[in-house]
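Example record used in the benchmark description.
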Amino acid sequence: MTERPEQASYRITIEGHLDESWAEWLENPAITHDAAGNTILSGPQVDQAALHGILRKIRDLNLTLISVDRIESGLNALQGEQR
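Model output (structure tokens):
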């Protein structure tokens, strides 16, 4: 039997200040802001299709995407080291 992979978490940084009222439309990520005035969306994604859906919404809002980073959980990091 194939093991179901753990949900991956991502940190998506976009240029400028995005109000927290957009959270529900963007599939409810945590929305924070950095010192440079950028918006950081973070949280788990069910799969790659869900991630691409959020990226499509960012594009549709004509927002500038700065970065997309996968956040390794402690368990995923340990499993990677053991391989």
